[in-house]
Design brief:
The chain is mainly β. The chain folds into three domains: 34 residues; 107 residues, Immunoglobulin-like (Sandwich); 161 residues, Jelly Rolls. 8% of the residues lie in helices and 20% in strands. Strands 1, 2, 5 and 9 form a four-stranded mixed beta sheet that branches. Strands 4-3-7 form a three-stranded antiparallel beta sheet, with no helix packed on it. A three-stranded antiparallel beta sheet has the order 13-12-14, with no helix packed on it. InterPro entries: Galactose-bd-like_sf, Polysacch_Lyase_4, RG-lyase_III.
């Protein structure tokens, strides 16, 4: 859903679309040659962008666009002890407002920063003023959070802007004691159970298993009432022992060492409503990040347990997909 303010102008131009059909005198016997030829053609065509032939006034020619360059670095004192790390896999957007890309606002997508040093020119920008906001900031060490360039970047036709080195400091309170998953805005790394044989599709056997129908019923079947999933740090494997979507169980509560519900360490507000489970997705669209303190008096010598309870259970699609969980120690003195 696109959110526009009163009187706000926004336009998106799609295309042109290039279609390339190749052929072989050997009746298609060398499939690899077809593929290599198609990739070579794609590279050649990409070098011609932006095209000069479209007549639509909404399609800006090369002379109407500008170029922005810079280097995005990630600085996490606890995860990247060798210093700043290039954000080599960050997606970049140019929202008009902070977090606009996350909420379906007017965002213009830009390339992925896929150079090894986190540096790549963002070419052919037409919009005169925009904010740089890499989404799903990545690096050789995946990170939580979003980087937002605090000042507006002004791009002029034919102009070039060098932002220099931009440093993102991800949210963190202390060193990592344990973690589950990868902070990449998907639940793909967690365990996806096999589908009920009655519903199983051969299209998703061996890949994209989360697209199978009816997986929302599998959690209750694998973990009936009174026998909920237990993950033991240091023994369990989240790719095998932590189901990707927790559904149909009685805002979520977090308890430490069996405290009763009224003593929950943290309760979330109501959130979500993206229908990701019903539409066979692997991420919920809008990601919610929660941080809560665990007081020292709640912990004890030896084994400690943390319980996460989904309290809203009046429908099969009211569930939670986890992207990443982390327990941090106290900050250094």
């Amino acid at each position: 859903m696109l959110n526009l303010g009163d009187g706000e102008y926004w336009k998106k131009v799609m295309g042109p679309v290039f279609i390339y059909l190749n052929s072989s005198p050997n009746n298609g016997s060398d499939i690899r040659a077809f593929w290599d030829d198609a990739k070579a053609q794609a590279r050649a065509e990409a070098g011609k962008w932006p095209y000069s032939f479209p007549e639509s006034p909404g399609f800006a020619k090369a002379g109407d666009r500008g170029t922005v360059t810079g280097t995005l670095l990630v600085r996490d004192a606890f995860a990247s002890k060798g210093g700043d790390v290039p954000a080599a896999t960050a997606f970049v957007g140019s929202p008009a407002r902070r977090a606009a890309w996350l909420l379906g606002d007017t965002v213009q997508g830009l390339p992925v920063l896929d150079e090894g040093d986190g540096q790549r020119p963002v070419q052919h920008r037409r919009r005169p003023g925009w904010n740089l906001q890499p989404r799903r900031v990545g690096s050789r060490v995946p990170q939580l959070g979003d980087y937002v360039h605090t000042s507006t970047v002004t791009v002029t036709p034919g102009g070039a802007v060098d932002l220099g080195s931009l440093v993102f400091v991800p949210p963190r309170s202390g060193p990592t004691l344990w973690e589950m998953g990868v902070p990449d805005r998907t639940a793909a790394e967690f365990f996806v159970p096999d589908a009920d044989p009655r519903y199983a599709s051969k299209l998703f056997v061996g890949k994209d298993g989360y697209r199978q129908y009816g997986l929302w019923e599998r959690y209750a079947e694998l973990h009936p009432a009174g026998n909920d999933l237990v993950f033991t740090v240091g023994q369990s494997d989240y790719s095998k022992d932590w189901i990707f979507a927790h559904v149909t169980r009685m805002d979520g509560n977090v308890r430490v060492n069996g405290r009763v519900a009224r003593e929950a360490v943290f309760s979330t507000p109501e959130f979500g409503n993206s229908n990701a489970i019903a539409r066979h997705g692997i991420h919920g669209g809008v990601q919610w990040s929660f941080e809560f303190p665990i007081r020292g008096y709640l912990l004890r010598q030896g084994e400690n347990s943390i319980s996460i309870t989904q309290t809203m259970a009046f429908g099969p699609f009211l569930g939670v997909m986890y992207d990443y969980l982390r327990l941090e120690g106290p900050p250094p003195a």
